[in-house]
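Why does residue order matter? Because the sequence determines the fold. Keep that principle in mind as you read this record.
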Amino acid sequence: MGTALGRSFLAIAFSFLIVFFFGLDDGKSFGKIESSWNNYSSQNDRGFNFSFPSSWTVVNSTYKDNGVITLIPPNNYDLFGDKMTFGMEKLQSNMSLHEYSNQALKILSKSLQEFHLIDSNPYVLSGTIWERILFTHETDNRIIKVLQFWTIKDDYVYIISFGTTPDSYFSYIPTIYNIISDVEIFTNNTVDIPSSIIIESIYKSPEGFVLKYPSNWNKVLGQNRVSFIAEQDNPQDHYLERVDFYHRRGDNNLSGTTYGENDFLKVDLINEIRYLANNLQNLKLISVNDMNFSKISGKELLYTYNSNLGATKSKEIMIRNNTYLFEIIFTTQKDEFDKFSPIINRIIDSVRLNNVKLE
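Structure:
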């Protein structure tokens, strides 16, 4: 599995980073969303359909099945300047999106200089679940910020990548997400295989927590997290409401120390607020509170920020056991927050640590 994935991922995603993200111009800014857009469709039996600004240029490979499609912004004369790329390749062995994502992140972390993963979470496009990652790496003494999506369909991996300098990232991102929101994968003369995954109402984590969640929500496993995603009521809604449970080993082991659980949570809280301030646009912290639920003490943050879809509101809860720090994050569009709060609170109230049995 690892060898097949290495060939596939390095041939597409890693080569995108090496070939397309060198020599970025810090002075460019092409974030303005244009009113005139063109449509593009891959010329092979499978590929991408999407729309793009009419001022951008399309360059596509002639290689069948794994042709790389490149979008180049206007006035971008640097051969290795800012580009958005679309690619695909057939996997040599069967694997799930979760397995592929874990292996891909390992390859990126080992292959890219000063690789730093900022975010990794599921993202829904046209009813298909993709993995979305955001990371930085260094090349030629310059830091590059990369937004990347991938999914698997009919034993093919489809990858979309965009990279730029950190200073230019937010100026590009409105246009990039407008392109992303219109992307569709098509396969001619193939039959889609429906998912056979059985959605359970109780989830038991190997890391020591158990919870209840709505049986009609989708469970998606990722690196150091599990996500529960609401059903899509509106086909135009690309931002599905979800609850993400992140887990990582705590900086300190609580046993054998003079510090209490709340002391470590205070440190975790300060670090998290710093992280949010550095990575979210127009962050507004509404409240920070101590909370108790199911005999568990924790910290609760409520905040808003601007995402690619506008005003976004999040509720974040931080709890600990002797080994792990758990972050429970509910995110939705600001005007949908109150609508989903009752069901989110029921999910949170059901959480137990240390494998306590749910009745």
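Residues 2-20 form the longest helix (19 residues).
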